[in-house]
Amino acid sequence: MSAPGATDVARLDGQVALVTGAGRGIGRAIALALGTAGAAVAACARSEDEISATAAMIETRGSQALAVRADVSDRHDVNRAVARVEAELGPVDLLVNNAGVGGSPGALAAGDPDQWWQTIQVNLGGGPYYCSRAVLPTMLGRGHGRIVNVSSHAGFGPWPMNSAYAVSKAALLRPTENLAAETAGQGVQVFSIIPGEVRTAMTEGALSCADPGIAQFFQGIFDSGADHSPEHAAALVTYLASGQADALSGRCLSAVKDLAGIPGVHADGLEMVARTQEILEQDLYVLRFRELAS
Questions:
Q1: pTM for the structure as a whole
Q2: b vs e for 123-152, b when ≥16 Cβ sit within 10 Å of the residue's Cβ?
Q3: Are 214 and 105 in contact (CB under 8 A)?
Q4: In terms of residue numbers, what domain contains 53?
Q5: Comparing 58-62, 85-89, 207-211, 272-276, which segment has the lowest mean pLDDT?
Q6: By Cβ atoms counted within 10 A, which residue in 5, 72, 117, 291 is the most buried?
Q7: DSSP assignment letter at 259
C-alpha cells in the first residue's frame, strides 16, 4: 500500500466532509485541503464570519462548500447542523472533529470546576461524541464513512497546570479505539491524529498564560522554529479520507512524524501504512495500561 507522491495528491471527488472548528487555524487548513482535493465541505464553528470566509475560499478552489454555524457542546445544535449538511450537500462521508478549547491553565486544586468541565465537554463530550453520534446512523446505513478526531501531544503524558486540556486529549484516544472496534467490518473507520505544535490563536494565547511554565514552553517552540504548519495535519486528514490507511482504523497517527518529507500539503509516504502488519501485531499507537511481567 503506497501513499500519494508529492505530485499525486489523493482525490476526494464525490465525498462530503464536515469539519468542526473550521473557521481558522488547523480546522480551516483541513477544510481547504479537502476542498482542494475535490470534496464538498461543510465548515462548522460558532463564528459565522470565519466559517463563511472558509467556505468562500473552498469555492474559489472549485468545490462546493457550506458554512454551518453550530456550538458543538450543544447536541441539539449539532443535530440541526448535521441535518442541514445532509440536506444541502448529502450524506457525510468524512467527519473531522477538530473544534476544541485550551481551557483555563492553573492548578487543579485552585481552578474553577465549571471551566474545567467545560473544557472536557467541548473537547471530548460535546464535539467528538455529539458529532460522531449524529453522523454514524447514516454512515452505518450506507456502509461507508470515516471519522478523524484531532488529539494532541498534550494527551501523551502529564501536563501540570493544564489538566483539563491534557485529560480531554488523552481521553479522546479511547473513544477512537472503541468506535473503531464497534464499527469494524461495517465500512466505518475511525482515527485520531496529532497535528504537532501549530501556531494558532489557542497557542498564541498561551504566550500570555499566567503560568510561566506553559508560556515559556510555547515561546521556546516558536522562537526555535520548531512549530509545525497546519498544512501537515491537513495533508494527513486528506490522506486518511482517501482510504489508503483504513487498515489502521483505531490508531493515532502523527502529522509530523508519520508523514515523510511533505512539502506543503502533499503526502509523500506514510511510514505507518508501510508497517501496518507490524503495528497490528504489536498493538502500537493505541492507549494501553502496561504491567510488570508476572
A1: 0.86
A2: bbbbbbbbbbebbbebbeeeebbbbbbbbb
A3: yes
A4: 16-198+229-277
A5: 207-211
A6: 72
A7: B
